[in-house]
Every structure is written in structure tokens, then in C-alpha cells.
Amino acid sequence: xxxxxxxxxxxxxxxxxxxxxxxxxxxxxxxxxxxxxxxxxxxxxxxxxxxxxxxxxxxxxxxxxxxxxxxxxxxxxxxxxxxxxxxxxxxxxxxxxxxxxxxxxxxxxxxxxxxxxxxxxxxxxxxxxxxxxxxxxxxxxxxxxxxxxxxxxxxxxxxxxxxxxxxxxxxxxxxxxxxxxxxxxxxxxxxxxxxxxxxxxxxxxxxxxxxxxxxxxxxxxxxxxxxxxxxxxxxxxxxxxxxxxxxxxxxxxxxxxxxxxxx
Length: 263
Description:
Elements: H1 2-22, E1 40-43, E2 46-51, E3 63-67, E4 70-79, E5 83-88, H2 99-107, E6 111-115, H3 121-135, E7 139-145, H4 147-155, E8 167-171, H5 182-185, E9 191-197, H6 205-212, E10 219-223, H7 238-259
Parallel strand pairs: 5-6, 5-7, 7-8, 8-9, 9-10
Antiparallel strand pairs: 1-2, 2-3, 3-4, 4-6
């Protein structure tokens, strides 16, 4: 009986810890200290001070910029080309959470931004999108883990023009957290993809389909296991997760190009 009780306590602790990681009132600043800014990059209606890229991006050719009013919040960019991807972490995550996938996507021909959260999460996603567009992307897709996915799912229908994402991938988004509404979601015409694991205590198969039900159309992929958000891309089914995400991004950009006027 003592062993069973201990296991229950451990599981409850893990679940509560994960909830805190994804909750909207979690920490919004990067946990690592930020070097002093060096110079500013001109982006329409935005000036971002350049700073050193974090060590997790060493050797990748990445650059980093600090957001206005957020002295420890970086937007790390790498890669080249017209296809942009913004990667958003869990609530208290930072740019390093998606570093491995950012480098892999950059090597595959994408221009990538991985973000620390600023004081306003929606604004952080918008800043990263605008920075990629200023650097040479002509279309951008969004990929967010847990709360990052919820922020992106809620923001996409409200975004217009070149900054409107051609696709959004929510990795383990939380049905309980929301951030989106069925009525607003109906206005979003981009492609949607939800990925998670079958027995994730926070975003299992049932909850993923519950999130999908808020949108007119969303592809849902459920992998075995309990891993959550970016952890899925380092676990036993990482190859499948990468293949699913790669296919979604490739098809999304191909569809966006084919649907553009004059093509």
C-alpha cells in the first residue's frame, strides 16, 4: 500500500509540474541571462537589438535579437530561404527548447525563428514573424508546444496580411487552456495540424480531438506514449514525429504557393 501511495504522489507531482509549465500565468522570461545588446535591426514598426545567440545554437550560424521591453527575451533566427517557421515553447520554456528542431529545419531549407517568451506572448509570436519576413521569408508557418500551440491557435485567425501564418502546428496543445474559440477559428483558412501522444496526462488523444473540434478542419496525429510537446521529438517515436511535421510543412507551403494569385 505504501508503494502504491508513493507512485500516486509521484504521478500527481509530475502532472502538476507539467500543468505549471503550460499554464498561461507561468514565467515569461528566459531562464538564462542575456548579454548586452550590440546593435538594432530595422523591421517595420519594430527595432530589435542584436545579442549573442544562446549556446544551444553554437555552430549553427544563428543570430539573436532582444525584444523591446523584454531584456531577457530573445528571438533566435537561423537558416535561409522564403519559407519561414516560428517555433514557440511551453510557458516557461525558451528558445533552446526547440533548438534541435530549429537547426534541423534550417538545414532542410527553412528560415527559422525560435523564441523566448516576452512579456506579451502574442506580441512575441508577431515579432518573430515580422523578423523572419524582414530577413527574407515570404510566407511563415507557426509551430508551438503546449501553451505555445494554444497561443498560436488563438492568434492565427486574428492575424492578417503577410504576417498571417499559412499553417499552424500545435504540439500537445491543451484543451483546458483554450486561447481559441470555435467562432473565431472558423475565420482561419490556413492548414492546421495537431500532434501529441496517446497517454499524455495533459494532452492525450481525446483532448487533441477536442481541440481539433474547435476548428473547421485539422489533421490530428497521435503517437504512442506519454511524452509532451518538444519532448516527443527526442523520444522513441521522434523519427515519426519529424516525418509528420515535415510532411505537414512541405504540403502547407506547396498549397500556399499554388493558391497564390498569379501561380
